[in-house]
Amino acid sequence: MKTLATLEPLTTRLIEIRRIQSAASVLSWDQETYMPAGGGAARAEQIATLEGLAHQRLVSDEVGHLLIKWIDPATGSAESTAEGWDEPSRALLRETWRDFNRAKKLPSDFVIRLSRECSLAQQAWVTAREESRFSKFLPSLKIVLGLKRDEAQYLGYANSPYDALLDTYEPGATVAQLAPLLTRLRERLVPLLKRVQASPVIIDDRCLHQSFDRHKQVEFGRLVLTAMGYDFDRGRLDLSAHPFTTSFHPTDVRVTTRVFEKDLPSCLFSCIHEGGHGLYDQGLDPRYYGTPLGESLSLGFHESQSRLWENCVGRSLAFWRCFYPMLQHTFPQQLAEVPLDRFYAAINRAAPSLIRVEADELTYNLHIMLRVEIEQALIEGRAQAEDLPGLWNDKMQSYLGIMPERDAEGVLQDVHWSMGAFGYFPTYTLGNLYSVQFFEQAKRELPQLHDDLEAGRLLPLRQWLEQKIHRWGRMFTPDHLARRVTGSEVDPEPFLRYLEEKYEALYRL
Ligand code: ZN
Q1: Domains of the chain, each with CATH number or no CATH
Q2: Which of 84, 118, 299, 350 could be a cystine partner for 360, CB 3.0 to 4.6 Å?
């Protein structure tokens, strides 16, 4: 049986490539957090140079020859070669072959250009969003959109060019699979929202929008992150315009949040959300750094971790039985007179709103659907960049019944399109569906989980997630790992039942 030791000539090269990419990630993190605005153009070149270098090394003849030595290029599988491989080696070869082939389809000068234009577009987006002027972002968006359409052509696809981009983030996913899931969600969520809106129960969430000291908010976020088992010796919490998590190695995983004086949930839930992402990255096996076995499986899986912590844990009554007294202690003036059940109802209030990252669990996926429809139309050429604000506002009206007055609260709110991340949004919905599937499985396998949460003991859940999901990296495909953990592939039913039960109780439907 051949093991990973045989693959050392390959893994040595993969690790070197990953180090270059990690260095680029440090530069991106800095760009989003501390870099002075004047550094933008130079930074874009620095990152593009490193990305180009990493790409050239991956598609090199050296790596190609090593792979073909062990893999049957016709099937992409190591199975048919004479001697048997152990499971990690087979997975490493399968996934490296996938990365190599995808990378090989993109010319190096295209990769460098895409990286540079996306860095510049992201900076243009920050300014446009601050000024709430879509027209300021439009020229950059046109360039990025054009490049992403080209990318889909380079990568190739069977049905829609959008599939080629979606596959980057969620291996194996296609629009054809996704569409029925979204339809099923829409068919159950829209009526549920109508019932909630018709309910005589009015949830007052003004207690969350008093004046809360920003510094104390961040400190409370830090406290919750620590309780979740996020390791600050291997991580940091900083501020950025759009909360995100980035990892350079399992020993250095950064999360960010944002904080508004009059909006307690924003900082609180983005800390818990990014903390869930951070735990995944800290939970990857450092022995496999640089190889696919040391990487997260897909963005849908990544998002399942953040949403599980944010919603299944962070918006549960059990969790707040322990943490609410601490929150009251942090903000006595604002919360001493607000009982737990009122606070719990306030953080779960469902109402159509403009901003995706602050949407409740019920309306969240409607925000995703409109983005997926728009970006699919853009990539397929059925819509143009200029059409965006109009399309956005029409769809907001038809899905959520409201319309933004300013671009900053509408089409400019998300960073994704400026980063060239077309095909990314569906992974949010997949993550929501997986999050409930995994949490229900954790409840079955950890009978004391409810008591643990009530007592603020969050580590058993983190360990379960680490054992079942984090440490495997890309050893299995997403479908395979979902079946391994829960017995089934992605399934909207547990998520829909969870939401219906939760909102029926809250709104006495
Ligand atoms: Zn996330």
Answers
A1: 4-156 (no CATH), 175-506 (1.10.1370.30)
A2: 350
